[in-house]
Structure formats: structure tokens, C-alpha cells
Amino acid sequence: MELISQHTKKIMEGCKQRARKAGLHFDDETLEYIVTNRDLLELTPKVMIPTLYDYWVHDVEVLKEKGRYELYPNNPYETVINTRPAISFYNDNNPDWMNVMIFYHVLAHIDFFQNNLYFRQTWEYDFTGRALSDKRMIAKLRSEKGRWLDYIIEFSRGLDNLVNYHGELARLNHPQRTNASKMLDFYFDVFLQSIKNEKISAYVKEVERYNDCLEQSKQLGEKTFFADIFRRHPEFDALFKKYLEKTSERKLDVLEYLLAHSEFLSKEKNRWMKPVIEVVRKTSLFFQPQIRTKIMNEGWASYWHETLFLQDDRIKGHEVDFARTHAAVTSMPRVGLNPYALGMRLFFFIEELADKGKYSIEFKRMLDRTKREQFDRKTGQGKNFLYSIRENLNDFLFINTFVDQDFINRHKLFVAGRRLNQDKGVWEYYVKSRSVEAYRKMLFDTLYHPPSIEIDTEKSKDGLLYLVHRFEGKPLVKEFISNTMLGIEYLWGAPVQLETSEVVPAAPAQTRLAIPGLTMPVEEEHAPREIKWQRVVYTMKERKLTKENT
Predict the structure, then answer these.
(1) C-alpha distance from residue 274 to each of 253, 484, 493 (Å)
(2) CA pair distance 426, 303, nearest whole angstrom
(3) What is the helix (H) or strand (E) element at residue 470, kind and residue range?
(4) Is there a single domain that holds both residue 511 and residue 545?
(5) 377 is in which domain, residue-wise?
(6) Widest CA span in the chain
(7) What is the pLDDT of residue 179?
(8) Are 89 and 44 within one domain?
(9) Nearest-5° Cα angle at 104, 397 to 80
(10) Are 23 and 155 contained in the same domain?
(11) What are phi and psi of 405, to 5 degrees?
(12) Are the C-beta atoms of 534 and 523 separated by less than 8 Å?
């Protein structure tokens, strides 16, 4: 692995100038490396982070990738990682025209990493430097603890999808407010509405009184306002303090709770396990935003590599080569999902509608089909609208907000079904639905959505750790429950219980055929079956798993 040549670096710097002129924002410093196929095979299991800690699963993945490459040899165009500075990897046999296209793609990725708010917690440090320190620490512990270290990593990685990612994000994007601001929120949002159940007229009068106090004195107005509240409501101060105690308790994710409250991990001989668990947790948090913005991120990069590449004079004579390469990356499959293709087309679609002013209230209220098709306010705000989307949304919000029936119709999208042709003995694919609701549901099913599991502190008594799965319509994967709870029991040092929901087995729907002299039940193949859910509790005690209904 080596840095790109000065000739190729000059191409990259030219791409940076053009990308910034078009409106992209990213740091000046970037690192570009030339890698061989062997390097890529070895880096892929570590998510392309060269300094990530060693783990036996990585070696297994390397062997799997080598076998896959022997069967299906291919050269990836690029890989970029969200570090400070951003690092990208390229094959050594890319021609200059291809590097122009690839560099625009990479720069758009970097712009997304450094401006999308879901990556907020990754902006303050260089992950490769932190990962190198973690790698050295784990290597030292491995020489001292041997296989026990891998057990701790194994148990921790079984829980690393349960990290409180949104809690960390909220803490960074919304700094702690002062007690005066919290008191104001408590008075208007809780005290007046929930405790006193005041009428709307009384609520409005209090808002007006607050504004009058501020107009009289910006510095003392709020104090005057609350002085009158303390006089009229002597119980307000005590209720506010209780509210602060309740809301100030930040919810800990499972790994955080184990680190903070496990007596087993707090023992002198086991304290070395804590930094290992923390490494696994921090690594998971770093990669959470990338999993949650895959469609947007790849779509944004594809949108910009097409937009900027076609305007670049350095591609003359290679238009056909670009078209062939670009089509291979962004073609829309009839069955399945290509995030590059879907995201890019959705960004182009949004830009067109925003330029015409079709996200306005005026257009939303318009019912005449002909007028809707001809509507065009020529706002010229399409690019600015895209920058706002790039900054504030993730895949779920992106799809839920902008994938509509017009988008489905324009690109002739559909949900494919599969059925067995018993005569020919083959599977057949068919158009199952062209509705936006069905297509959105298919997209949602592909998104990353880990289970929400919290600690019930009231039921966690006498050493027991009680976990509650907040059921959202999808059951836990049964095959993983036993090994995951085994790891939690070891790290907790005592029995563990997990409350979740499972499907109640239902008898097949039946109908009766009227046959002369005989009546027999026959199962209906297409009869809808109602799904019933039952809350159950799994218990892991002394490495034995049991289950009972609640």
C-alpha cells in the first residue's frame, strides 16, 4: 500500500477545485492510497480501517473473500473511510479518465461524512488514531490473557448493535440547557398542562405575562415572572426538583449498564475487561451512521460524480467508457435494490421538483391534474434543497418523505413477487405491486433497524439483570438469543432475564368441502391468518436457557 503518484494527486486537486465551486464542502487534507487486490481482501473485514483491532472473525472473513475472489474476480473502483483526514483507496490500474470520475464520487462521500448531522459524533477526532491505540492495547492484553480476551470481544460484539446511538447524537446536537430554560419548559409543558390542567385561555394569559415581563426588562424579566409563580404556587419548586431528578437520568444502553453496574467486571482481576468492552462499543458507535445512511450516501456520491464528470473537459474522448462504467454502477435492477441507483435517481427527482416549486403549499393544495403537470415556478432552489436534505436526513426519513407515487411511475418501479411453477420446476418472478405503499415497505424492510432493548431497573433485583425488548412488530432472531444471553450472563456475573414477544402458534384456517356422503376439512392456501403475539421471558442461569410465558 502506497500513496498515489504526484500526477494522480494533481488530478485529485483539480477535482477538489471543481467540486468546491459546485457547492460541496470538505476539509482540505485527504489521503489517497494505491492498493492491490490482496490489500483490499485483507482490509475489507476491518471495514477498510487499517488500524482496527485484530479479531479471529476478521481472519475468517479474509479466507471467505479470497475464495469469493477466485470464483468471481473483480476490482472495486474505490473505497473511502470517514477519518480525519479522510482516507481513500484505489486500484493501481485505473486510467486517468476513470480517476476523474472516481475522485468526484469520493469527494461527494467526504462531503456527506463531514456535513450530515448523523455523523456528528465522528467529527471531533481521528478514528484511525484512536483505533491504533485500541489495537495496541488489545494486542498487549492478548499476550497476557490469551483466549479469554477473544471471549470478551465475542460477548461484547454480540451486543454492539444495542448501543444508544440516538442518545449520543441527541447529547451532541442538543447541549445541556440551563436550569432556567428547563424551568420554563416544565412550567408551560408539564405544570400548566398536566398538573394544573389549565384551560387554553389561562395558558395564553401566562404566555402573554411572560412576554410582558421580558419587554419590561430582558435581564430581570424572567426572574420577575418566576417570583410570581413561586408566590402563587408554593409546590412548584419541589415538583420542578423532582422533574429534574427524573429527566436527568440518562438511559444507558446494555454495554454501558454492564460497564457501570456489573460487580463481576468491577473485581480487581476482571477490570481489564472494561476497556475491551468500551473499544467494541466505541467502534460500533462510529459505524452506526454509515449503516443508517447507505442509500443517501451512495446516491449523493453517484449524483455528483455524474453531474461533475459530464462538465469536466478532461473526459473528452472517453464519453462511451464513462457511460459503460456509470451504467454498471447505477443501473436500476428489476428485482432487488441498488442503493447507488435508487439514491441517485431520487436526488435528481427531488432537485427537479424543488426547482419547479412543487414542494410548496400552493402545489400541495392543487388538485387539477393538468395544472399539476404544468406547474413550474422556476425557483432555482433545487441545489439548496438538496444540501438541506444531505445535512438533516437519514435513509428512513429520505425514503419516507420523498418516495411517492410520481417517482414510482416515472421510473416504472414495482415490488416483485416469487412463485413456484410446479409444471416446470422453476421459480417465477412477477409484478406483485406498483403502489408506493408496497414499494416503501420493501425499502423499509431492507434498512438497518436493530432491536430496542432496555434495562428494567425495578425488576433487576437481588443480582438479577432484567432486559425488556420494546416490541415493534418484529421478533428477535431465536438462533441468537441463547449465545447472546450466555455472553451477558458472563459479563454480568449473575442470572439474566429477557422479556420479549413471540408468535403464538395458530392452527391453519380450514374450510369444508360438501361431498355427497362425506365432509372433510381442507386447508385454504390463500386464507389470511391473524398473527397473535405472546410476551415471554427467557432466563439464562448457570449457562442454561429456559423460557416461560408471562
Answers:
(1) 15, 18, 14
(2) 38
(3) strand 465-470
(4) yes
(5) 331-446
(6) 95
(7) 59
(8) yes
(9) 70
(10) no
(11) -65, -30
(12) no
Distance CA 273, CA 264 (A): 10
Pairing outcome for strands 544-549 and 533-541: antiparallel
Answer positive or negative: Cα dihedral of 238, 243, 248, 251.
Answer: positive
SS3 162: coil
CA dist 138 and 143 (Å) reads 9
Residue 196 in grid coordinates: 394544573
Q: Is 315 exposed, middle or buried (0-12, 13-18, 19+ CB in 10 A)?
A: middle
Q: Give the CB-side neighbour count of residue 450, counting CA atoms within 13 A.
A: 19
Q: Is residue 169 part of a domain?
A: no
Exposure b/e, 232-244, CB count within 10 A at least 16 = b: eeeebeeebeebe
> 426: which strand partners?
421
pLDDT band of 524, cuts 50, 70, 90: very low
* Cell representation of residue 274: 472494561
- State residue 271's pLDDT score: 95
Q: Which residue has the cell 490489500?
A: 39
342 and 412 inside one domain = yes
Same domain, 264 and 154: yes
Q: Please tell me whether residues 315 and 389 are part of one structural domain.
A: no
Residue 396 and residue 447 in contact, taking contact as beta carbons nearer than 8 Å:
yes
Total domain count, the chain: 5
Cell 402573554: give the residue. 208
Per-residue pLDDT of 25-41, as tens digits, reads 999 999 999 888 778 88
CA-closest candidate to residue 407, choices 387, 436, 385, 441: 436
